[in-house]
Write a structure and sequence with these properties.
The structure holds 2 protein chains of 2 kinds. Chain A is 80% helix and 0% strand. Chain A contains 3 helices and no strands. Chain A is elongated and about 100 Å long. Chain B is mainly α. Chain B has one domain. Helices cover 80% and strands 0% of the residues of chain B. Chain B contains 3 helices and no strands. Chain B starts with a helix and ends with a helix. Classes of the chains: A mainly alpha, B mainly alpha. At the A-B interface, helix 1 and helix 2 of A face helix 1 and helix 2 of B.
């Protein structure tokens, strides 16, 4: 009798696990609007240090964790400055190229003197 | 839309995209391992769905500035 129920039990377990995963994803706002997503991200970031501390205590290692350096990197500002740098170097490129060619020719002339 | 606001919207869009991609990937892995005998297509389907949801969210958010909302229409 157990052999007949086993496939059903397996299927039920799998469905429970998959349904649970879906429910957790839905409930924590991972599948909603972008505000909900950033809220969930903030919660996760805030929950990491206490969790790490707990784990360290569990393993009996009472070291002082190095504080994660605050990254003051804004992709938008970096993108803007990147675009400006690219365009300015593109506009200066012909002049610079001519200068380098002249210098190179001058150097070769000096060699052959 | 001021440039700061636009920048914040883009930041939210990118973060949201990463989150949804990760979620879709993990759900795809879960389903692939549990139901589909470890084949690859549920994983790609999940990540694609996640990216698609992020794209739709982003689109709505960036357009919301120009769309007339219900609360203004009823005046």
């Amino acid at each position: 009798m157990a052999a007949r129920i086993l496939p059903v039990v397996k299927l039920a377990t799998k469905v429970t696990i998959a349904g649970g995963a879906l429910y957790v994803a839905y409930d924590s706002g991972l599948l909603g609007s972008s505000e909900q997503g950033s809220e969930a991200l903030e919660k996760a970031k805030a929950a990491i240090p206490p969790a790490i501390e707990e784990w360290m205590k569990y393993f009996g290692v009472e070291t002082q964790l190095p504080t994660i350096p605050k990254i003051e990197f804004s992709p938008v500002a970096a993108w803007n400055s990147g675009v400006q740098w690219t365009i300015s170097s593109l506009s200066e490129a012909p002049t610079k190229a001519a200068e380098h060619t002249n210098n190179g020719l001058q150097y070769l002339k000096d060699l052959t003197k | 839309m001021s440039e700061k606001e636009l920048g914040k919207k883009w930041d939210r869009c990118l973060a949201d995209g990463a989150i949804k991609l990760g979620t879709g990937l993990s759900l795809g892995i879960v389903f692939s391992v549990l139901f589909f005998k470890r084949r690859t297509w549920p994983i790609s389907f999940g990540s694609g769905t996640g990216l698609g949801m992020a794209y739709a969210n982003c689109q709505n958010e960036l357009r919301s500035h120009y769309v007339l909302h219900r609360s203004e229409k009823e005046q």
